[in-house]
Amino acid sequence: MKFASKLKKAVVLCLVTVMGLMMLQGCGKKSNADVLASMKEFAADDGTVSIYLDEAWEVESLGMDNWLSAFNKAGTEGVVVMQFPHDSIYAMDSMDSMITLVEESYAYTGTDADAPEVAGLKNLKASEGKITIDGSNIDGFVIYGESDYAYYAIIFAANNIDDSFTQAMKVSCSKFAENAPAATE
């Protein structure tokens, strides 16, 4: 009888421990709403494109009014949004031309990946791999897409792209916005 009682207590203790560990695994993951709450909208100088990023990030000028670049203070995580309007002097003749430009400009080598949804863009392609920014070879995730107004390359880079960074990237993509100027005739 004593053995059965001790066995029952041991089983209950094991179940409580396992349940506690399972609950702790979920404690570190934020909801998408929590991630979005710590973000703010960043826009290109000309206002034609914006995206939500960590509110502590800082914009860095790339000398192009329709491009957006922002990084964390340590410079270990960042994003570059490259916009190529179809009717500008920087127009790309195809998505493949833009992909080649990114690969050559950033010494980027990547393999195909599943593209997250990007609000307002179509023909999405993505790749993950290594990218060189400011002389450092770090993790990169690049999303290519297009709208009726422009081709886009959205480059996410970090020393280590982990689950938390990926979640924030997907939330950012869901808040991507294009504000194309009205067509003039």
Q: What can you tell me about this protein's structure?
A:
It is a single chain. The protein has 185 residues and is α+β, with helices and mostly antiparallel strands. The chain has two domains: 1-29; 32-178, Mog1/PsbP, alpha/beta/alpha sandwich (Protein Transport Mog1p, Chain A), CATH 3.40.1000. Helix content is 30%, strand content 35%. It contains four helices and ten strands, in the order H-H-E-E-E-E-E-H-E-E-E-E-H-E. Strands 3-4-5-9-8-7-6 form a seven-stranded antiparallel β-sheet, with helices on one face. Strands 1-2-10 form a three-stranded antiparallel β-sheet. Strand 7 and strand 8 (136-146) form a beta hairpin. 26% of the residues are buried. The model is unreliable at 3-26 (pLDDT under 50).
Write the layout of secondary structure elements.
Blueprint: H1 2-27, H2 32-37, E1 39-43, E2 49-54, E3 58-59, E4 68-71, E5 77-85, H3 95-105, E6 109-113, E7 122-133, E8 136-146, E9 150-158, H4 163-174, E10 177-178
Antiparallel strand pairs: 1-2, 2-10, 3-4, 4-5, 5-9, 6-7, 7-8, 8-9
The residue fraction in helices comes out at 25-40%
Q: So what's the overall shape?
A: globular
Strand order of the largest sheet: 3-4-5-9-8-7-6
Return the CATH class of the largest domain.
Answer: Alpha Beta
Low-confidence stretches: 3-26
By CATH, the superfamily of the largest domain comes out as Mog1/PsbP, alpha/beta/alpha sandwich
Number of domains: 2
Tell me about the biggest sheet?
7 strands, antiparallel
Total number of beta strands: 10
Report the mean per-residue pLDDT as an integer. 85
Strand content range: 35-45%
CATH topology-level fold name of the largest domain: Protein Transport Mog1p, Chain A
CA(first)-CA(last) distance: 92 Å
Number of helices, where a helix is a run of at least 4 consecutive DSSP H or I residues: 4
